[in-house]
Amino acid sequence: MPEMDKEGKEYHVGVKQKSELFYLKGSTELDWGMKNRLARIFNPKDGKTIMLAIDHGYFQGPTSGLERIDINILPLVPHADTLMCTRGILRSIVPPSITKPIVIRASGGPSILKELSDEQIAMDMEDCIRLGVCATAIQVFIGGEFESRSVINMTKLVDAGLKYGIPTMAVTAVGRDMERNAKYFRLATRICAELGAHYIKTYYTKEDFETVTASCSVPIVIAGGKKIPEMDALTMAYRSINEGAAGVDMGRNIFQSDSPIGMMHAINAVVHGNEKPKQAFELYRSIKDKMQK
Ligand code: 5RP
To answer: What is the pLDDT of residues 78-98, one digit of tens each?
Structure first.
């Protein structure tokens, strides 16, 4: 028989038990596991995240900068809050000793040679659990040829994730001929939030982006989009944060930069330090110069 401890006496009768409001927009009513996973993605100190997006190969093959993920991307991972990738890359290249939260690409189907909105759910929730992921990501094509099906795919993934406490990130995908303006993104992000997405990746708009974040009831992160000059990418990140975004899910503007590690540091300074674009650009440049010596 183990020895019994004495019963405790410090009950603090009359002192109300502490309970905190969850810090992420629209997430207070979620279950513990869901919140805990989101808290691994969004830094609890400032509610922001830097997701390193490297999932582009699932529809466009070996994208420039992602030819060798083992060589070019793994050294960047320690500087990100979250890694967003496919399960194929996770299992074949990312070491399981990694402690960064993983957001897994859970949709797919068509390649760049076909109609992209024809995506399906491409992963079971059971495998998401097996991999220990912190969220799933799925494309939603508002205005696209397969709009309804992509929305319903998202709701199915949300339902599957709710069973096990795994959040869903909806990605608002924009068709080639669609205008990327605030009106479109207000519509697309709001539909995703109304139908259950836990957070949403969308694009920054130079005008009225704050109306996109204000009218969406859950956190928004921005995609980087096509490679643009580093100063412009840092300015976009800075503005998006100051206009209500909860972070970035950035790929090409990091791994296609002439100094991906410099960009990781500079984006960190902007997202977590609210550093001005000019100062962040100087940081990028100084790291680039140091690495070249
Ligand atoms: C592909 C994606 C990408 O992850 C997303 O576009 C982010 O990457 P980038 O910053 O290169 O745009 O969701 O559909």
So the answer is: 999 999 999 999 999 999 999
DSSP letter for each residue of 191-210: HHHHTT-SEEEE---TTTHH
How many residues would you count in the chain? 293
What does each C-alpha distance from 217 to 95, 164, 199, 213 come to in angstroms?
35, 22, 9, 8
Per-residue pLDDT at 1: 66
Model confidence, pTM: 0.95
The verdict on whether 201 is a catalytic residue reads yes
**Ligand 1, atom 14: closest residue by C-alpha:** 56
Q: Which of 25, 35, 201, 288 is catalytic?
A: 201
Residue 171 Cα: closest atom of ligand 1:
13
Average pLDDT, the chain: 96
**Which atom in ligand 1 lies closest to the alpha carbon of residue 54?**
4
Q: Does ligand 1 come within 6 angstroms of the Cβ of 171?
A: yes
- Predicted confidence (pLDDT) at residue 2 exceeds the cutoff of 90: no
Which one, of 230, 226, 239, lies nearest residue 281 by Cα? 230
Residues 6+ apart with CB under 8 A from 254: 52, 76, 224, 260, 263, 264, 267
Tell me, what amino acid is at 128?
C
**Ligand 1 center–CA 28 separation, angstroms:** 28
pLDDT in tens, 174-227: 877 778 899 999 999 999 999 999 999 999 999 999 999 999 999 999 999 999
Report the distance separating Cα 293 and Cα 291, nearest Å: 6
For 177, the token pair is 């001929």
